[in-house]
Write a structure and sequence with these properties.
Elements: E1 2-7, H1 30-40, E2 44-49, H2 50-53, H3 57-66, E3 71-75, H4 83-96, E4 101-105, H5 107-119, E5 125-127, H6 132-142, E6 156-160, E7 163-166, H7 187-192, E8 197-199, E9 202-203, H8 214-218, E10 225-226, H9 229-243, E11 247-250, H10 259-273, E12 281-287, H11 293-302, E13 304-312, H12 316-321, H13 328-340, E14 344-349, H14 358-370, H15 377-385, E15 390-391, H16 395-402, E16 407-409, E17 415-417, H17 423-443, H18 485-513, H19 521-533
Parallel strand pairs: 1-2, 1-3, 3-4, 4-5, 8-11, 11-12, 12-13, 13-14
Antiparallel strand pairs: 5-6, 6-7, 9-10, 15-17, 16-17
Helix pairs in contact: 1-6, 3-4, 9-10, 10-11, 14-18, 15-17, 15-18, 17-18, 17-19, 18-19
Length: 542
């Protein structure tokens, strides 16, 4: 039994390029873990990471047609309308290789198994939830190594005589230490893409946020499950020896386990990491309620540099609506602690959702300014335009659908479209979305933190304190070439950043007065773009 596991190309368009909610970061290791379990079972396994290799759809199809395999497992991600291109490619492969078994796995197929099997009958099966044991059982049955029909594999959905059928679910994996370490791309390929070494120290989350489908993927009643610190460190050592790359990133949706036990586990992991004989650096993701200064101080000593913090909102009413289980005060304290420890912070933030009000948007703006989080235009634009994306599988999708507030749209009706209940807030969201995206096109992210350097300071430094008007000799809409280009860019970025904050505040005022409504949205977009033209030199950034 020859198994090929495929990570297809990740296709985007200008409207979805900034959306990262189609799969959690932990999904990056799904294929590696599945491949390791298949290999442990004695099967011949090859992983084809078309996205990492930079292959387009046509090149991927050609390599698949030239390959020799019996089972093709595809980690299918939701790519909005472009998902159809991946399915068309798979159809072509199946037509040329009708004897292969075509399986889909991942978060998207788990929640869209029925429409996928119904609309694409050439797909033989879909894994529901964690793929490691289900794919291994399927492959062993197809190879005749295990008794039973492959159609009866636990955790699988198939096309039965009357249409798509869901088999009994498979229980979530409880002993993560028992899993083999995931297969990884070659060090040469990973180095070419300047990748972190991603590592998964836990699965699941003890939170129950309405916008997240993580726990739904693992199954009802699933709890947070963590690997032992010793097991994690053993993998880190192995990966470092193989790659020489000391940069790691924990792909866990929530790095910390619940309560005191989770705290002690993190302290023990920090102790072990500090004993490494190389200069380890790493990042992680967590909730604001998990930020404990003693624990994070220990992690910083062990090499922690970056934290993605799930803040979500600066308005308590929104946090309650998300069932986040945190407070604005906890968000503020977490940011303060991380900043005091010198940690780079990235935020999970939702400025607009189906229940957003004008007052909540104002609270968000005040929160972001108060916490000094709007430090450059790209960051500000991202935070300002982020709108909750409602996908099938999240509690929000089911709740809004039941209330008649959601319209299933898109490929396999996987996304839910909505209008914010307060149409004034909807108008603000539409204008801010268009203007913020334009700012992101202009900056190209040049002003943001990257893996190799700091952000361009937007509200600090410079002879005028950085926040008091144009730099000497630089005129609006133009530029003095006697001023170095990087200084001109910094000034433009600073002014764009201030513009975005002032523009959102004015939008809120206009919506409150009734001047901004759904009918006047185009006028406000045009006005905002004209204001930007007064900031950006006509020839573009210097």
């Amino acid at each position: 039994m020859r198994v090929l596991l495929l990570n297809p190309p990740l296709l985007t368009d200008p409207f979805t390029d900034d959306l990262v909610v189609n799969a959690p970061l932990s999904a990056c290791l799904l294929t590696g873990y599945a491949g390791a379990c298949l290999k442990q079972a004695g099967l011949d396994v090859t992983v084809m990471d078309a996205d990492l290799a930079g292959l387009d759809v046509a090149q991927t199809r050609e390599q698949l047609l030239a390959g020799d395999f019996d089972l093709l497992g595809v980690h299918l991600k939701f790519l909005w309308g472009r998902t159809a291109e991946i399915m068309a490619m798979l159809r072509a492969v199946k037509e040329e290789k009708p004897r292969i078994h075509l399986n889909l796995y991942g978060h998207y197929p788990t929640f869209a198994w029925e429409p996928l099997l119904r609309q694409f009958p050439f797909v033989d099966s879909v894994v529901l939830g964690e793929p490691e044991f289900t794919l291994t059982d399927l492959a062993c049955r197809l190879a005749g190594l295990d008794e039973g029909f492959w159609q009866d594999t636990v955790g699988l959905a198939v096309n039965g005589e009357g249409g798509p059928v869901q088999n009994p679910p498979r229980c979530a994996i409880t002993d993560l230490d028992a899993l083999p370490f995931p297969l990884r791309p070659s060090p040469e390929l990973a180095a070419r893409r300047s990748m972190h070494n991603y590592i998964l120290g836990s699965r699941g989350c003890f939170g129950r946020c309405t916008f997240c489908y993580l726990n739904s993927f693992y199954g009802p009643g699933t709890v947070w499950r963590g690997r032992s610190p010793e097991n994690i460190v053993a993998e880190i050592d192995e990966v470092y020896r193989a790659t020489g790359n000391p940069s790691f990133y924990f792909a866990d949706a929530n790095f910390f386990g619940p309560g005191e036990r989770g705290r002690q586990r993190a302290l023990e992991l920090a102790r072990l990491l500090k004993q490494r004989d190389f200069s380890l650096v790493f990042g992680l993701e967590c909730r604001s309620s998990d930020v404990d200064e003693e624990v994070f101080a220990g992690l910083v000593e062990a090499g922690l540099r970056d934290v993605f913090l799930g803040v979500e909102s600066g308005a308590q009413s929104a946090l309650d609506r998300f069932q986040k289980g945190t407070t604005v005060a906890q968000n503020e304290r977490a940011i303060t602690v991380l900043r005091r420890l010198g940690i780079n912070i990235a935020l999970g933030f939702i400025n607009f959702d189906p229940g957003t009000t004008l007052e909540e948007i104002r609270e968000n703006l005040d929160f972001l300014q108060r916490m000094e989080l709007l430090d450059c235009p790209s960051t500000t634009a991202h935070l300002f335009f982020h709108r909750q994306v409602v996908l099938r599988g999240t509690p929000a999708y089911n709740q809004l659908l039941a209330r008649g507030q959601l319209r299933p749209v898109g490929f396999t009706a996987h996304e839910g479209e909505y209008t914010i209940a307060d149409v004034r807030a909807e108008a603000v969201a539409r204008v801010m979305g268009a203007v913020a995206r334009r700012v992101l096109e202009i900056t190209g992210g040049e002003d943001m933190y990257t893996a190799r350097g700091p952000k361009v300071s937007c509200c600090g430094g410079g002879g005028d304190g950085g926040c008091s008007g144009l730099g000497e000799g630089l005129t609006a809409g133009g530029g003095n070439r006697s001023i170095p280009a990087h200084v001109q860019r910094q000034e433009i970025f600073r002014r764009l950043n201030l513009f975005l904050q002032d523009f959102l505040s004015r939008l809120l005022d206009a919506a409150g007065r009734g001047e901004l409504n759904l009918g006047t949205v185009p006028d406000f977009i045009i006005a905002g773009q004209k204001e930007m033209e007064g900031i950006i030199p006509y020839q573009g950034l210097p």
